[in-house]
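During the reporting period, our protein records have gained a structure token line. One record among many is quoted in full directly below:
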Amino acid sequence: MSDKRQNNQLLLAFAEENRGEAPNGLSGGTESFTAKRGTESPAIGEQLMEEVCGRENCKRALARVKANKGSAGMDRMTVQELPELLKQHWPGIREQLLNGTYEPQPVKRVEIPKPDGGIRKLGIPTVLDRFIQQAVMQVLQGRWDRTFSEHSYGFRPGRSAHQAIAQAQKYIAEGYRWVVDLDLEKFFDRVNHDRLMARIAERVGDKRLLKLIRAFLTAGVMEDGLVNPVDEGTPQGGPLSPLLSNIVLDEFDRELERRGLRFARYADDSNIYVRSKRAGERVMESLKGFLATKLKLRVNEQKSAVARPWNRKFLGFSFTSNREPKRRIAPKAVDRFKERVRELTQRNKGVSIERMAEKLTRYLGGWLGYFGKCQTPSVLEGLDQWIRRRLRSVIWRQWRLGSTKFAKLRQRGVSKDLAAQTAGSAHGPWRIADSPGLHIALPNAYFDSLGIPRLTVRL
């Protein structure tokens, strides 16, 4: 079935309970539903669930879930199967949502390694629950986002990590050259449900929607074949969780603003900039108390510190200590980059350099999209040279025998004497990779021809 035909059938399914709906609104659909059910319509301002189930909102939610792809949940249904499910069962699902009887499935526990060590626990909802969460998130975000702090940058439309980093850079340039680097301990696992729901209830009067959000929070986690209950936390992995985290931490943002502090926050990663170490230490101790008593959250003592900004990292970046600070890639981020490149360029039997280049190119494209905004070109130049030396050493290993190496060098324009000297060298591949013979045989232009991007091109 074509995507266009499938989308048309889904629109019909979304609209089935909304036959009186105006083309670009929800009022007609609400009246149609109310008349059909014979029940009293919620008060004005409390019809958010009707908006969640509205045709346009659902259409956007489905498109987003399909675009995000992602793994199957505990029911093993894939994103590709979701449209057919909605086409067949959406009227019944919608009725459950509007009646307040929909029950989410437990999330599937998935553990992934963190870049700086440790394990991050994700909770993967079923694709149907992801769709419903996305629809709820869109409605709540439309009302909530404009009220969030201007210093909050994570998981918000039109905002990015790069903006948070630029704001931090501006504070440092203004003379706030000490940072209170706060890391919340297992934040997504420690969110207090009662406090979160109380915050949401301040602005949401639709009890059906409040009940649904609470149900998502307490749906449980399937781990090792068993479903375990959940009484705190908002599992990472669902579309609704990032918005809920911002709702929780908005209270923290307001406290920082009330104190007149300069800060930038991205999700649970907060940096506060002050003029002295002593001021930073006072702020750190005071905020620990606020977080513990007001938000029931703990600061990770090992990962938090009062320090110079150039000795810390923020969202993968750090800064130089110049009067006009420059953005630079944090050393740990450089280490992770090299580790990933090594994984992608392992000397695997049967893997051609062309195939290796394809995988490497995809990774470098994404990496450049983020870290290409650094302001220290010498670092990128060094990484460029390191990548090509790494590739030369891999190719040298693939050539194997001395006679083969000699022939390959000659084919690639290396003189007879230099080819013999290089092929007969007792040095290892890494040392040979930086030799004149390999630079002639495998110039940068060769790697350009494979499509491997140069990291310094943007600069």
Summary: Residues 17-45 have pLDDT under 50 and may be disordered. The first helix runs from residue 3 to 15. The chain is about 55% helix and 10% strand. Residues 153 and 160 are 6 Å apart (CA to CA).
